[in-house]
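HUMAN: You are asked to prepare a plain-text protein record giving the amino acid sequence and the backbone structure tokens, both parts labelled.

ASSISTANT:
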Amino acid sequence: MNIETLIQQVRDNLQFLLVCVLVVAAIVAAAKIAEKTILKDTVIRISRTKYITVCGMLGALAAILHIFDFPLLFLAPEFYKLDFGELPAMIGGFFLGPVGAVIIELAKILLKLVIKGTSTAFVGDFANFVIGCTLLVPASIVYHLKKTKTNAAAGLAVGTVVMAVFGTAFNAVYLLPAFSALYGMPLDAIIGMGTAINGNVNSVFTFVVFTVFPLNLIKGALVSVLTMLLYKRISLFLHNLAADGMSRRTVRRAQRP
């Protein structure tokens, strides 16, 4: 490896790291602004200790589910994998608000990296966090506007659509080129892996349309259905866990469907 190649690799890694930091900061800021403005009267208030406990517990569960990811080889190349790590984060978002969902999602990724490491030069891990948050944050915001089953379903539907559309565009514009550069795999080779699965794939655009978009729709739909089935039951445990750090009025508000 010559010095010019080494410098370029260092530059690419530093650029990727900077993008990661900026995007994470933007997501956290957006969730925080939402809680301070449109959700200021609906998000529950519990002690910091209880908040950290809930986030840590759900983050650990999310990391375990994330570790057991699996590919859908009939739909996308092997490095695109499906997991249910967003399920605990979504439950946490419905309980704590969008900031809690983002913290749980970040804890999931960090714990997964400690336990399992990365197989995608960190690009897949960054993508999982960012795209996961595009499901979690909109869904949590919509649900907290009015805590009903109808709003929960609406929020999950909105989050799924946002995740599918954003994930498709983000892969095409940034993630696939970044993966190609950092992992050392030519972009044409990645497209070729998609072509082997679906003959309609012949460019970056068709790759993301026929692989990334349906994969994100499937993931969003599965997480949404499981959230609707499980949240009410799990929320009772979370309410009891955090009850001593909440006022009676807050407990009643948090226990709405």
User: Anything to note?
Assistant: Strands lie at 70-71, 81-82.
